[in-house]
Fold this protein.
Amino acid sequence: MRHSKMSLRQTVSEYLLLTAATFILVTGIYLFKFPNNFSFGGVTGIAIVLSAVTPATPGIITFIINMALLLLGFIFLGKDAGIKTVYVSLLTSAGLSAAEVLFPMSRPLTGEPVLELIFAIVLPSFSAAIFFNIGASGGGTDILAMILKKHTRVNIGTALFLVDLGIVAASCLVFDAQTGLCSLCGLLAKSLVVDGVIENINLCKCFTIICDNPTPICDYIMEHLNRSATIYRAEGAYQHNEKTVIITIMKRSQAVELRNFIRKTQPGAFIAITNSSEIIGKGFRGFN
């Protein structure tokens, strides 16, 4: 019963986070990407280019393409398409269509294309990092990537990059050189921002503590920080004194507390703190 309540709470938290991230995505696309015709890949990039040569708006085209890709996903992937990805894709399409009705925009928000390009990159990339971090995606071309991965031997990263590059080239032809160059910058910067955000979301601190009295430190780690630690005996190379080495890993906020506690109670202890964004195990990622 308790496990089911925790699972329900986790599911609700994840979908609330997905909803918030989707709102950020829609904001970045609608306010900054659509008005400036920034076309650096994905379904929204295709929609921007097509909207310039058809009567349909970018929001409507995004909705149509997303629905077609979702249908392909169900045909070729079945349930592997992922409920979370379907939820994000539907919410994004509906959000963009609603924004066009409620807040119509006939021109860019400001007169600074570089400033708007930054927001057009950062906001969607930040939301994409949140999606990936909890096992979802923004749908669209990600579904196409899943189909290619399952049914072909095509290098997915290269294939998607070439598609995105083609969209950028099309934007140069349909719009102007400035829009095309801004779109190219967005394409190059997008993956870097996503990787950086994911790394910072998952960043943990790894402690290696060498001390004489491990008991107070271990008690503080377990009772106050609700973490665990590994200890083993060691010997100093200079004076051959017996030492204890404690290894523990925790979130950044907890790391500050532990560091301050050790400096206050055992100022002679040696502490080495390193960063890691790939911790797999109980209490962290990848543990079932």
Notes: The first helix runs from residue 2 to 36. Strands lie at 204-211, 230-235, 242-251, 270-276. DSSP finds ten helices and four strands in the chain.
